[in-house]
Amino acid sequence: MMSINTTRRRCLSVLLAGLALASGEALAMQRLTATDHAMLEAEVSATAVSRIALHQDRIARIVRPPGGLAIEHDAVRGDLYLRPEGPEPPETATLFLGTERGFTYQLTLTVTDRAAAQVLIRNPDAATAAEDTPAPGDARIAALVALIQAVAARTPPAGVTVEGATGARHAGHPVLEIWRARRFTARVLALPPNAPTDAAALGTEAGPTVAAVWVPEGPHPRHAVIVETPR
Q1: Which one, of 180, 179, 226, lies nearest residue 206 by Cα?
Q2: What is the pTM of this model?
Q3: Largest CA distance in the chain
Q4: What is the pLDDT of residue 19?
Q5: Do 116 and 45 meet the contact criterion of CB atoms below 8 Å apart?
Q6: Is the CB of residue 187 less than 8 Å from the CB of residue 228?
Q7: Cβ(45)–Cβ(112) under 8 Å?
Q8: pLDDT, tens only, 153-212
Q9: Which of 31, 58, 141, 230 is deepest in the core (most CB within 10 A)?
């Protein structure tokens, strides 16, 4: 009797192991390696919810034809959740994904009779971009530098407005322009011949709200940029 029970237990263990393996294969994550503008392919379920995610990046926007699949975008995590829509889901669907780090992928999905699917897209360049993302303190400095560079190049970037300042003065000097960014305000000052051209001295004149001062190089600079943190 003992040998029969032992045999049954062994058969049951083998059967359960086989079922677990089959389930694992059905639910195994599809890992895709991508580059920018890559054309990728994956499978999603025709009956259950499927998930698409990015490694060290987030999906920021989706472009797709109407119908076929209902898509829910988790804006916090950047993941997509797809489920069939209507009685007859399409055989294939193509999505264009734009990522937070600036990459674009074309993803062709084959809709199959399978369990819930998970798709993970890995882009080595996204990992590099993540390493280059500045810490909060570095981000403040980067924003200051970017604004000063924009003023120097006379090219306002997106999100920056430039205003005239006729008759306005700052720290006793005429204000030529005011550049308003999200985090900082830059004032372009006209410097008279006797004005200090030392950035530290100008910053002291301008007051405690000054975050940075830039004076163009050259023997006779005629203007300076005072960047302030809004009060």
Answers
A1: 226
A2: 0.48
A3: 109
A4: 35
A5: yes
A6: yes
A7: yes
A8: 888 888 889 998 878 888 788 888 899 888 888 888 888 777 766 777 777 777 777 888
A9: 58
